[in-house]
Design brief:
The complex is a heterodimer of chains A (151) and B (168).
Chain A: H1 6-46, E1 55-59, E2 65-69, E3 74-79, E4 82-84, E5 93-99, E6 102-108, E7 134-137, E8 142-147
Chain B: H1 3-24, H2 41-50, H3 53-71, H4 74-95, H5 102-124, H6 127-166
The chains are: A alpha+beta (151), B mainly alpha (168).
Chain lengths: 151, 168
């Protein structure tokens, strides 16, 4: 005895196919999320350890870098990837301040000024900051790294 | 290229630019630069599903070029271009899978956008700061990709229903 009309049978088959398609789509989404989670784990495992000396390393856009002991009180001005004497407010400028074991981006005329909102870098703050031991000004390619002491 | 397609692309480029501007006004996590909602990718998702691959690629290049010119800089353009090319290529490839939904396509696009940006970061800077950035970017890229996918699914449903009603 046939309990299904032809239309009902087709409807049931379509629903089953739709369910299969939906399952496949969610499996693909899950696989993508799993890939991202794996990438996060790999990045966390490969993070470099900080070194033994308590200092800040400032890297400029042209490959130049300087190391400043964390106990120093100093203002460093970088313009177009080079360390210069004074800030003039010209484009491509970053002013970094180091004081009482903390370093921060005091001024930057990059498009969004996000590096100025990244907070202060110190032996204590590296454990809680989202960017860990770094302050990054991506548009000007200027980086401040806290190297050492926290371990 | 037909006038209809040309007009459609001009409208979509304008929409992508406006959404990109709105995006730049919403800082998701102010302490971590580069984390955005990626609203303008909704336009690219539409193009992936309703336009030809060549048109989608042109739209992506226009979006990256013009938004960098208007709201960004040359370095930002390189990051956006790398992420854009990789994610658009992946989304177009995924689109070839029969009956694929927009949600996995958008999620993969979001993740590969981050992969492209990380590769450029490693080339331009060094791998060390990129490793500190990357976990946050991957988390945000996956979440925004998934959310945009859900939003796009709702939008596509509306568009298709409207087109069926109007007989377009």
């Amino acid at each position: 005895m046939n309990f299904c009309t032809g239309e009902r049978l087709i409807g049931t088959m379509e629903r089953e196919t739709d369910n299969k398609r939906q399952t496949r789509n969610w499996i693909l989404t899950g696989a993508a999320i799993a890939f991202a989670a794996l990438a996060v784990v790999v990045c966390l495992l490969m993070r470099p350890e900080t070194e033994a000396l308590d200092r800040f390393v400032i890297r400029c856009g042209n490959g130049q870098s300087i190391e400043v002991p964390a106990w120093e009180t100093r203002t460093i001005v970088i313009r177009d990837g080079r360390i210069v004497e004074k800030a003039t407010g010209e484009s491509g400028e970053n002013v970094i301040r180091i004081e009482n074991g903390e370093a921060w981006m005091e001024y930057a005329n990059c498009p969004h000024g996000e590096c100025m909102r990244q907070g202060r870098l110190s032996a204590e703050s590296v454990r809680t900051r989202p960017l860990g031991t770094w302050i990054v000004c991506a548009p000007h390619k200027v980086y401040i790294e806290y190297a050492g002491g926290a371990q | 290229m037909k006038v209809r397609t040309l007009t459609k692309m001009a409208l979509l480029t304008a929409a992508a630019l406006i959404l990109g501007y709105i995006d730049s006004l919403i800082p998701l996590v102010p302490s971590i630069p580069g984390i955005k909602l990626g609203l303008s990718n909704l336009v690219l998702l539409y193009a992936v599903f309703y336009m030809r691959p060549v048109e989608t690629l042109i739209l992506m290049l226009l979006k990256v070029g013009l938004s960098s010119l208007l709201f960004g800089n040359a370095v930002g353009a390189l990051y956006a271009l790398a992420g854009g090319v990789l994610s658009t290529a992946a989304m177009l490839l995924m689109r070839r899978i029969p009956h694929i939904s927009v949600i996995p396509v958008s999620t993969v696009g979001g993740i590969l956008h981050i992969v492209g940006q990380c590769v450029i970061g490693c080339i331009l800077i060094s791998w060390q700061p990129v490793l500190f950035y990357a976990p946050w970017l991957f988390i945000s890229g996956t979440a925004t990709g998934l959310l945009l996918g859900l939003a796009a699914r709702a939008a596509f449903y509306g568009i298709e229903r409207y087109e069926r009603r109007s007989g377009a």
